Amino acid sequence: MNEPHVDAAEQIVTTIATRRSYLTLTDDAPSDAAIAELVQACTSVADHKALRPWRIVTLRGEARERFGAAVARHQYGDVASLTKPDEIKDAAKLAAKPLRAPLLIGIVHRAARHPSVPEWEQIATAAGVGHLLSLALFAQGWGVVWRTGPFVNMPGVAEVHGLNSNERLLGWLYVGGIDPSDAKPRNRKIDATQLITRLT
Ligand SMILES: Cc1cc2nc3c(=O)[nH]c(=O)nc-3n(C[C@H](O)[C@H](O)[C@H](O)COP(=O)(O)O)c2cc1C
Asked: At residue 5, does pLDDT exceed 90?
């Protein structure tokens, strides 16, 4: 066993234990360079046969509007031709969903064919990147929440993200600044002893 880095290990465990999601985000966001550095760090994710069955897609500015428009189109068709006030309002609300954060990071599973690595293992790796990236962003003081919903299965949304036929969205990390009014520490307590089975 390598000599443990005591301080670093404590810090990492504390970061994992205190991570929480932030639903309300400010317009502050990490730069492309900062994201590149963190994604580089996430390449350490466990990856059977090193298939790298993942990639990320970042959306800022108007790209988020194109994403929202694709969702509204999927649900309501040609939004411009809607006439019922309720439908117009609901379509606009739906289209505005991706605007809840200044930066969205799509987590993409890139399916690879391999005789000994089934798809679920590849999805586990891609999801692992999402979790590592969430933690890394949280550690750097950014607010993050992972959202999915039915959007992940919409062809128009896949098109906006430029997905290939072997690719599938596992959701988005909504990333932004932490609103000072929502800077409370994690309060959801889960009893881990209920989740551990000890075989001897
Ligand atoms: C793959 C994945 C997809 C998720 N999708 C949603 C979602 O669409 N909407 C939502 O409210 N929470 C979603 N969540 C849960 C939130 O990200 C978050 O974990 C939850 O609100 C609990 O908050 P906490 O992370 O502070 O414990 C998802 C989590 C994961 C891992």
From this structure: no
